Amino acid sequence: MRSVETTGKTIEEAILMAVAKLGVQRDNLDIEIFEEPVKGLFGIIGGRNARIRATIKRSVKDEIKEFLSRVLELMGIEAKIEITEEESQIMVKLSGQNMGLVIGRRGETLDALQYITNLAVNRNKSDYKRIIIDTEEYRSKREETLRKLAKRLANKVQRTKKSIVLEPMNPYERRIIHSTLQNHPYVTTYSEGEEPYRKVVIKLK
């Protein structure tokens, strides 16, 4: 049960009735007032109680799960959704069959899914929380691959003294390349081009 309608001599009394029925704190309820209380003649005749509807607020986790479930259903994919909340971000782990379809080419589908989930869930919220979606540890594996690539190409630039332009990458992947080489003694990095074809360039200092 997520909502109840209750009555009381006052609005506060009706709210307390709803709190008792739903078993949650008042701060976790959205209150909709249908009728204000009206005192009757001599306090007896023709009076009317307050009437409200109290609804349990949806948590961010509930919103994420509901949104992703709808999107994955439209994609024809069944997946288990596990959500853990940290101070500044929310981690979402998807598991099931056909996760390759969720990842897509070089993680493009996974990135798109993460992007639209962030837009949908954080809309009209003052306390923005970054949502990170992963499956089959793709992101950690991709990060490790990119860090190895960055170091290998940096050595090549140092050896050949020629700059190297990498293939187009999304902002997340470019940041991995930049952060891996930011303290390198002989090479530096920068990005060039326009999205979605922006690339990282590795060159000698």
From TrEMBL:
Subcellular location(s) of the protein: Cytoplasm
Gene Ontology MF terms: RNA binding
Keywords: Cell shape, Cell wall biogenesis/degradation, Chaperone, Cytoplasm, RNA-binding
Source organism superkingdom: Bacteria
Regions annotated as coiled coil: none
Cellular component, GO, one term: cytoplasm
Region annotation Jag_N domain: where it falls in the sequence: 5-55
Keyword Cell inner membrane: no
Pfam families per the UniProt record, alphabetical: Jag_N, KH_KhpA-B, R3H
Keyword Acetylation attributed: no
Major site of localization recorded for this protein: cytoplasm
Protein's GO biological process: cell wall organization; peptidoglycan biosynthetic process; regulation of cell shape
R3H domain residues: 140-205
Domain (KH type-2): residue spans on this chain: 64-139
SMART domains: Jag_N (SM01245), R3H (SM00393)
Similarity comment: Belongs to the KhpB RNA-binding protein family.
Domain commentary: Has an N-terminal Jag-N domain and 2 RNA-binding domains (KH and R3H).
Subunit description: Forms a complex with KhpA.
Function summary: A probable RNA chaperone. Forms a complex with KhpA which binds to cellular RNA and controls its expression. Plays a role in peptidoglycan (PG) homeostasis and cell length regulation.
Protein name, as recorded: RNA-binding protein KhpB
